[in-house]
Amino acid sequence: MITLAHYVALSFLLFAIGVTGVLVRRNLLTILMSIELMLNAVNINLVAFSRHLGNVEGHIVSVFVITVAAGEAAIGLAIILSLYRLKNSVNLDDVAEMKG
After folding, report:
1. How many domains does the chain have?
2. How far apart are CA 56 and CA 8, in angstroms?
3. pTM of the entire structure?
């Protein structure tokens, strides 16, 4: 039987992988995917606790998080595409050069 602890452990593992990806990687696409992974880990927690408590609020909030994640992915990909056209790279070091 899968319990709430299993879902929390899976969510923690996915969130930790996402945080590691954001902190370690220098590629903007990988960072964007890591952020999506962290949002999905939060969704697993929301749905698991909502199911455990017997209400639907977690499911509803999860749908809103998915909607925000879709908008974030679309805007993030547009920014990455424009940076690639400008610099021919999606590396964070090249983006830092644009500040000055």
Report:
1. 1
2. 18
3. 0.86
